[in-house]
Design brief:
This protein is an alpha/beta fold. The chain is built from 9 helices and 9 strands.
């Protein structure tokens, strides 16, 4: 497959991009400038491009490995997936999708939806998840959600190398990816054009009281046994709602999205609780935000058919209450019949989900572009 990404339209082969990189984060700007200059000199616009390979999802998905700073477990990478069908054209707008806990990107309908809107689609498998998980690593483990700043910076830099430094990028986060996205956006105002949140994990199940009461015990355990696994309470009910063999519509790689989930570890849970506390204190996200969630929660250790039309993972009332604390321009949409990942709900429900995104994006999503 050939690369359909030509050089940015405002650059000729004789020009260097140093003078036209906008004032993003300084690190992102440096990476974009360096890569644009290198590719301008060395690459034909019709080649796939160094580092891009066919993805496990098959054509027209491609993946690029992003080298990150090693940690105590060794080399660390993130994986950037792009959707590049034959009819793709250069877009000035892009979406970066960020998955949730014990998950990876496989929601191809989401990519196809954004492509139909004329938006270039990318998805990021964060370090130690999915395509980025390496032997010997503790799946999904970080001790602070700020660690993902490096993953997001590398992905945004690569997108702007791909499409041009002035590309407007929107974040699209699911569950824990939504929590990561809002905290990142609060710390990096103006670097993206908006946020679409699909059942973001903005508060611990139950209430802030549960979080407050549990924090000292989790903090103490994390201090001395950070990677100690906590009791796994995943009964597999949510997976049953979406897995094709159990009556759902989806197939996925169970090495990367196992049932039960990857073990929850004390250090990681402390990082999540700290993120929830930040949201509870109130954020100041300058970009417009769309927060979507199911209209109903059904959380129980026992299976119920009602779980096929409700969020069986998060307390949706708690995350809706927190949503209005994200910033000055927040739209909340409740979608009847939706499961935790709205994009994996039944077809009529996910059609409503995509319709909400389309309406919101046309009015608010790209307003800062």
């Amino acid at each position: 497959m050939t690369d359909r990404v030509p050089l940015p339209r405002f650059l000729s082969r004789a020009e260097t991009p140093e003078g036209v990189v906008p004032a993003l984060d300084a690190h992102i700007s440096d990476v974009v400038a360096h890569e644009l200059a290198r590719r301008t000199r060395a690459a034909s616009p019709r080649t796939r491009g160094a580092g891009w390979e066919q993805d496990v999802l098959g054509e027209p998905y491609e993946v690029r490995t992003l080298e990150l700073t090693p940690d105590d477990e060794g080399p660390v990478v993130a994986s950037l997936v792009r959707y590049r069908p034959p009819d793709a054209v250069r877009s000035a707008r892009a979406v970066l999708y960020v998955h949730g806990w014990s998950d990876y990107f496989f929601q191809t309908e989401t990519a196809e939806f954004w492509h139909r809107q004329g938006v270039a689609f990318y998805a990021l498998d964060l370090r130690k998840y999915g395509r980025s998980l390496r032997p010997g690593q503790t799946p999904g483990y970080v001790t602070t959600l700020r660690t993902y700043d490096e993953d997001l910076a590398a992905a945004l830099a690569e997108i702007r190398v791909d499409l041009g430094p002035h590309t407007a990028v929107m974040l699209h986060g699911h569950s824990t990816g939504g929590l990561t996205a809002v905290l990142w956006a609060d710390r990096h105002p103006g670097q993206t054009s908006g946020l679409v949140l699909n059942s973001p994990w903005l508060e611990l199940q139950g209430s802030s009281v549960v979080r407050t009461v549990s924090t000292p015990a989790i903090t103490q355990l994390a201090r001395f046994q950070a990677k100690a696994p906590l009791p796994n309470i995943d009964t597999g009910n949510y997976a049953r709602t979406i897995r094709r063999s159990d009556g759902g519509e989806w197939e996925f790689d169970e090495r990367w999205r196992p049932t039960p989930t990857f073990p929850v570890r004390a250090g990681w849970l402390r990082a999540i609780i700290a993120g929830h506390a930040e949201v509870a204190r109130g954020l100041r996200i300058t970009q417009p935000v769309l927060m979507m969630a199911s209209s109903k929660t059904v959380i129980s250790p026992r299976w119920s058919e009602d779980m096929r039309s409700a969020d069986s993972v998060l307390d949706v009332e708690a995350i809706v209450r927190r949503a209005v604390q994200l910033g000055p321009t927040v739209t909340v949409a409740r979608i009847a019949g939706a499961v935790h990942d709205l994009a994996l709900s039944a077809l009529p429900v996910r059609s409503m989900y995509y319709a909400q995104i389309q309406r919101w994006a046309s009015a608010y999503g790209w307003s800062d572009s």
